[in-house]
Design brief:
The protein has 566 residues and is an alpha+beta fold. Helix content is 38%, strand content 21%. The chain has three domains: 72 residues, Roll (Ubiquitin-like (UB roll)); 155 residues, Threonyl-trna Synthetase, Chain A, domain 2 (Threonyl-tRNA Synthetase, Chain A, domain 2); 316 residues, P-loop containing nucleotide triphosphate hydrolases (Rossmann fold), CATH 3.40.50.300. The strands form nine sheets. It has a five-stranded mixed beta sheet with strand order 2-1-7-4-5. Strands 18-23-17-24-27 form a five-stranded parallel beta sheet. The chain has a four-stranded antiparallel beta sheet with strand order 8-9-14-13, with helices on one face. Strand 15 and strand 16 form a beta hairpin. The longest helix has 26 residues. The protein is globular and about 80 Å long.
């Protein structure tokens, strides 16, 4: 066959251009790529789990018919790790179904680098064995699946046929979700005779999923994933009782309201209107802020430290908590750690030469502690204001002074790091961790990660208040996540209390603003794959107009129109 009958592809991992026969599987190209790179390095290569094809994530089943740019993915790539994780969850689902056909698996939420799961009876006439026996049986079945190296297969079929296939499998949430889709055909996932619809592409086979664990935890189980930095090792798991308690509280609440999944949300918006869901979610937030204010009063603290990752709603939480503290008779003073950045010349840098604004050493810690000690002595302090355009602090005349009924609220990503307020006695502090810790799930086995939820929030906020397009935000996001893992998450259990800032209705509102931005991300950028991933779950959600949202809501921090000054 001559080159005129072939097509050109580019393997972007190496820059190699080659001509192939139309219809060639990615699996064939991946095998050739692995042989070549293994020969050059002389070292074993990590399994290829999938590829970016013109910056769209595809499984190795994909056939190439036209010229493409292809980048192969392994577990160390963000998209490759998601393929590994999706495949691992499907393995668990099949193992549970094979061992206990009358049981249902619920993957409730991520927990560190893994998932908290429940396995419960799906029918009245069946009782599961005790927890340890269930764990052993499911784990052994997963090991057998891994050793069998079974392929994950994608099949496109009529939507009606897909619904018929999964209807007998105790998956009412998935059935309801599919029934509401407005399409004729759908791609379903198969592992042997087990079928499901996973929210993303999968690794090629169970034999690629070599590093994982499944064990008991509290009333349920932990599905533990590999460490992306060391793929041959499990990620370190340390109990986080305060974080887990917030997840458990949230799931108890949404179970009571029957709003745990996207299909529940869509049904409530359709039947009762968006205002019903908004009123419930906002009332819960107000109740929580009042409870936390009471806890602060009972503690006798004079310094409230409020921290959380990007787009967690820290600033609005600071304002609303301050209102509740004022109701209790406090004179509330506020400080933002953003105003204590050091000048650009003193800002630490990353290995690539860019400024590391996520580092705690980007803050003037000695100056902050000097001011806090002076305020504790009753002295008046001049507070700096940071000019983000010039990269320097300046003094605008703002001062603070603490009286006998004063309480100081400090908000910033590093507020729970002991290094920040090392000179202040812990007895004076009350520490709060804020984050969008959990949200709607797509169905019982497919969650929407809190990180994705916060990313959508940030996309909307950056566009509204910084004039950034989605590409700018998506490009910066991996570095933001790195900073969170290094500087924020290790200190979250230091908190006296955690506040879940997620709102059950928010993705319906955010999609109205985020979808047009995401659709503008060009195909020739790697960020296109993340944009498509966010669009995939956003398209399942019924939109809600922002006009129904209160002016003091956390959502206003991202949408605009808040009654608070930021």
């Amino acid at each position: 066959m001559n080159n005129t009958e072939q097509i050109e592809i580019v393997i972007s991992n190496t820059g190699l251009r080659q001509h192939i026969t139309p219809g060639t599987h990615l699996a064939e190209l991946a095998a050739a790529y692995t042989r070549e790179t293994a020969g050059q390095s002389g070292k074993p290569q990590l399994p290829i789990l999938g590829a970016l094809v013109n910056n769209r994530v595809e499984s190795l089943q994909y056939r190439v018919y036209t010229p493409k740019v292809i980048r192969f993915l392994n577990i160390t790539d963000r998209q490759g790790f998601r393929m590994y994780r999706n495949a691992l969850c499907f393995m668990l689902y099949k193992a549970v179904h094979d061992c206990y056909p009358k049981a249902v698996l619920s993957i409730d939420h991520s927990l560190q680098n893994g998932f908290y799961c429940r396995i419960e009876s799906a029918v009245e006439d069946f009782q599961l064995p005790e927890q340890l026996e269930v764990c052993r049986a499911v784990r052994d079945r997963m090991i057998a699946l891994q050793e069998a190296d079974m392929p994950f297969v994608n099949r496109t079929m009529l939507l009606s046929d897909a619904i018929d296939l999964i209807s007998p499998r105790h998956m009412p949430k998935t059935v309801e979700l599919l029934q509401n889709l407005k399409q004729l055909y759908i791609e379903m996932n198969f592992l042997g005779d087990t079928v499901h619809k996973m929210s993303g592409k999968l690794a090629p086979s169970t034999g690629c999923i070599t590093c994982w664990d499944f064990r008991t935890f509290e009333e349920g189980y932990i599905l533990q994933c590999a460490d992306t930095d060391h793929p041959d090792k499990l990620s370190l798991f340390q109990p986080t009782p305060k974080l887990f308690a917030i997840f458990r509280e949230h799931h108890h609440w949404v179970d009571l309201l029957h709003t745990s999944t996207v299909s529940d949300y869509n049904r409530i918006v359709h039947d009762k209107g968006p205002q019903h869901l908004i009123h419930l979610a906002e009332a819960l937030h107000e109740k929580k802020y009042a409870e936390i204010a009471d806890m602060v009063r009972q503690s006798g603290a004079r310094l409230v430290l409020l921290a959380g990752p990007s787009s967690s709603g820290k600033t609005t939480s600071c304002r609303r908590l301050s209102v509740q503290l004022s109701v209790l008779g406090y004179d509330v003073q506020q400080i933002s750690l953003d105003d204590y950045f050091v000048c650009r010349a003193r800002t630490p840098k990353l290995p690539n030469g860019e400024f590391d604004f996520e580092s705690i050493d980007a803050l003037d810690i000695p100056l902050l502690n000097e001011h806090l000690l002076a305020l504790a002595r009753g002295e008046e302090v001049k507070i700096p204001t940071f000019d983000f355009i010039k990269g320097d602090p300046y003094y605008s005349g703002k001062t603070l002074k603490m009286g006998p009924r004063s309480i100081l609220v400090i908000e910033g990503i590093h507020a729970l790091n002991p290094k920040l307020t090392a000179q202040i006695d812990d007895s004076f502090k009350f520490k709060i961790y804020v984050s969008a810790l959990t949200q709607l799930a797509i169905d019982n086995q497919n969650i929407i990660h809190g990180t994705d939820n916060r990313l959508v929030r940030r996309l909307v906020r950056d566009n509204n208040f910084r004039g950034w397009g989605a590409l700018d935000t998506l490009h910066r996001w991996p570095e933001v996540v790195r900073g969170e893992r290094e500087h924020i998450f290790p200190f979250q259990e230091n908190a006296n209390v955690m506040f879940n800032s997620a709102l059950l209705y928010e993705l319906g509102v955010l999609k109205v603003y985020a979808e047009p931005l995401l659709k503008e991300v060009p195909e020739n950028c790697e960020e296109y794959s993340i944009a498509r991933q966010l669009l995939d779950f956003s398209e399942l959600i019924t939109p809600i107009e922002a006009k129904y949202i209160p002016y003091n809501s956390i959502m206003r921090e991202f949408l605009g129109g808040s009654s608070f000054e930021y």
